[in-house]
Amino acid sequence: MRKVLILFSLVLSLSAMDLLIQSSQVKVGLRAVGKKLSPADVKSMLKQKGFFDKSWNKNGSFRNDFLPKNLQGDKVVIDLATGLMWHQSG
What is the pLDDT along the chain (90 residues), one digit of tens a residue? Predict the structure, then answer.
């Protein structure tokens, strides 16, 4: 019985640690509705969010956090940093 309790405690600790890691990830807020942007607005947003662009923000350092998943037989990729999800090609 004691071994079962120790194992159960370990599983709970690992689950709590996983939740703590996931909740501490930095997320970026993205617009839910499209908006017309000027080139200056785009440049500003790229720098503010840290997104890389080979012409306008070569020092972009945004880190995605990709998680491949299988949802109802479809392969998808979820970016935990942005909340975006898309169908995995291939």
Answer: 555 444 444 344 444 445 444 544 558 888 889 999 999 999 999 999 999 999 999 999 999 999 999 988 899 999 999 989 999 875
Model's pTM, two decimal places? 0.59
Residue 65 neighbours by CB under 8 Å, 6+ apart: 25, 79, 80, 81
